[in-house]
Design a protein that fits this description.
The protein contains seven helices and five strands; from the N terminus they run H-H-E-H-E-E-H-H-H-E-E-H. It is an alpha+beta fold and about 140 residues long. Helix 6 runs antiparallel to helix 7 (about 120-135). The longest helix is centred in the C-terminal third of the chain and has 13 residues, at about 120-135.
Length: about 140
């Protein structure tokens, strides 16, 4: 078995996920991101039949700042990605990186039994692989 197959998403995910309601404005989302020191937010489901969404710094930069929109007049649901691909915590980081490449994404919520338990990104995947080399 390859060494990277031994490292699972659970081992490298960030588990302090910041969840928000999609109706907050982008200015509030930016304040929350700054306070939480994160570049991504998970947007909660509205009900059991809904799906999770995600707002990234890059979404705000592209859809609000670059277009000269007032962040206090744009809601998070207007710029979020939804639905988002999620990954299982027991997926190997090698397959997670392939999934990111195949679908052109850089972040994904980690979902276990319908609940978001973390978030994984290229950044956390690479750091996880580096940690393997430090052993």
């Amino acid at each position: 078995m390859r060494e990277l197959d031994k490292i699972k998403v659970r081992d490298v995910m960030r588990d302090n996920v910041t969840m928000v309601d999609g109706s907050i404005d982008v200015m509030e989302a930016m304040r929350i991101m700054k306070s939480a020191k994160t570049t991504s937010l998970i947007v909660n489901k509205r009900d059991d039949s809904d799906e999770y969404g995600m707002v990234l710094f890059s979404d705000i930069a592209k859809q609000v700042i670059a277009k000269d929109r007032a962040p206090e007049r744009v809601n998070a649901f207007e710029v979020m990605a939804k639905p988002v691909l999620s990954v299982r915590p027991d997926m190997s980081i090698r397959f997670c990186a392939r999934l990111f490449e195949n679908f052109g994404i850089s972040h994904a919520p980690v979902v276990e039994q319908e609940d978001v338990i973390g978030i994984v990104s290229y950044y956390t995947l690479v750091l996880g692989a580096i940690d393997l080399g430090d052993d």
